[in-house]
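hiii so um. not sure if this is the right channel but i have a protein structure encoded as tokens and i wanna go backwards to a sequence. like what aa goes where. can anyone help
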């Protein structure tokens, strides 16, 4: 239990979840056209469907897997999920139809819904004074995976659209074997809970929002913000191919730069900015930067300038931690766990709605023969959502800094 190996396993599992998402992003436009035919606009529509199906499964099955781990143990839930994930990536690597890809994304969403189980295991094996530090390591592992995934996917795309899936399968299988060798079971007879379906309801956290009226306007800001930012994972690969003719490798590099920028901003710039401006002004600054960059991306035609803009785009992320801090300080002290469940559910809903809406808009404005050609149209919608977030925040309750 005191060994560092179980901690390493959990961090690797979280990183693999993030890598698996980013790894396949650069090749999805080409892979969808390869198996389904059609042009880039049609591929984008299917890309949105695949992303939404993945997010829906994570939303529905996250509480269920967490509840199963409380009843049957963390070890079997984590190891079985990794083994099925490895098999699922192999199926997607060999898929010859769009329907098989869709089935793969559905299964992948279920097997990747183990974040709550991994966090519970980390809590089980950590002393009280170590919990915060180790939870910070979990966030760092996810961030590292998000940065590495796209660049690995872009590099592997040089060997074909299926190569990233083989790597993802190997990583998941290797980690499953590692876990089978070193992972202890942390659920004991004393802590084991009987399984009840009522505890696996994914909508229970959203229902709790009505019991926290003090944060309802702030959670509306949070929802608009998250929904607007879904434009990047949803259409970035399709947009940059259509607008700039980027290769999968270049797409991977740009996504890596964006992920690295987010890590730097949230790791190094948030605290000094809040000290300088306070929470409220930091949120407004972040929303203004997000709004401005989304408007520019709507009309930009230069790939070079887009790459130059990526650090500026990343700066907008300075506002989100400040917003989360305000929301946390506004909610009662005895409702903090309930609050985090609400925010997680709001993020999940944004991940479900965002990809399918953004890709549909991209398809409408890039289909040959349509009246208006504007590949950046999804960024314009995102800009309006960000403007809504800014207006709601400006009219909402103020918190002393």
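sure thing!! here u go:
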């Amino acid at each position: 239990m005191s060994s560092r190996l179980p901690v390493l396993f959990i961090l690797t599992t979280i990183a693999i979840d993030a890598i698996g998402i980013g790894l396949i992003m650069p090749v999805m436009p080409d892979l969808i056209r390869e198996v389904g035919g059609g042009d880039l606009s049609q591929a984008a529509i299917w890309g949105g469907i695949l992303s939404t199906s993945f997010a829906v499964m994570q939303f529905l099955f996250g509480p269920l897997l967490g509840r199963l781990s409380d009843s049957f143990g963390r070890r079997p839930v984590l190891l079985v999920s990794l083994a099925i994930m490895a098999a699922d990536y192999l199926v997607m690597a060999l898929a010859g139809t769009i329907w098989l890809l869709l089935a793969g994304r559905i299964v992948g969403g279920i097997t990747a819904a183990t974040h709550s189980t991994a966090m519970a295991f980390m809590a089980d094996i950590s002393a009280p004074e170590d919990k915060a530090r180790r939870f910070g390591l979990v966030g760092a592992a996810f961030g590292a995976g998000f940065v590495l995934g796209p660049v690995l996917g872009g590099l592997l795309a040089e060997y074909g659209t299926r190569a990233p899936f083989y790597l993802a399968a190997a990583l998941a299988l290797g980690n499953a074997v590692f876990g089978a060798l070193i992972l202890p079971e942390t659920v004991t007879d004393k802590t084991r809970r009987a399984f009840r379906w009522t505890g696996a309801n994914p909508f229970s956290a959203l229902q709790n929002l009505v019991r926290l009226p003090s944060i309802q306007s702030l959670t509306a800001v949070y929802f608009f913000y998250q929904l607007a930012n879904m434009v990047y994972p949803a259409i970035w690969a399709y947009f940059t191919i259509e607008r700039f003719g980027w290769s999968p490798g270049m797409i991977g590099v740009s996504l890596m730069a964006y992920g690295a920028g987010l890590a730097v901003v949230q790791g190094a710039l948030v605290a000094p900015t809040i000290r300088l401006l306070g929470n409220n002004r930091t949120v407004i600054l972040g929303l203004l930067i997000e709004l401005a960059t989304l408007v520019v991306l709507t009309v930009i035609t230069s790939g070079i300038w887009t790459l130059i803009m990526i650090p500026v785009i990343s700066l907008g992320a300075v506002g989100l931690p400040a917003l989360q801090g305000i929301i946390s300080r506004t909610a009662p002290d005895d409702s903090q766990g309930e609050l985090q469940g609400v925010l997680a559910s709001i993020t999940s809903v944004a991940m479900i709605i965002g990809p399918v809406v953004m890709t549909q808009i991209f398809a409408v404005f890039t289909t040959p023969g349509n009246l208006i050609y504007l590949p950046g149209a999804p960024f314009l919608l995102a800009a309006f959502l960000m403007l809504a977030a800014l207006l709601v925040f400006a009219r909402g309750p103020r918190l002393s800094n």
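oh and DSSP finds 17 helices and no strands in the chain.
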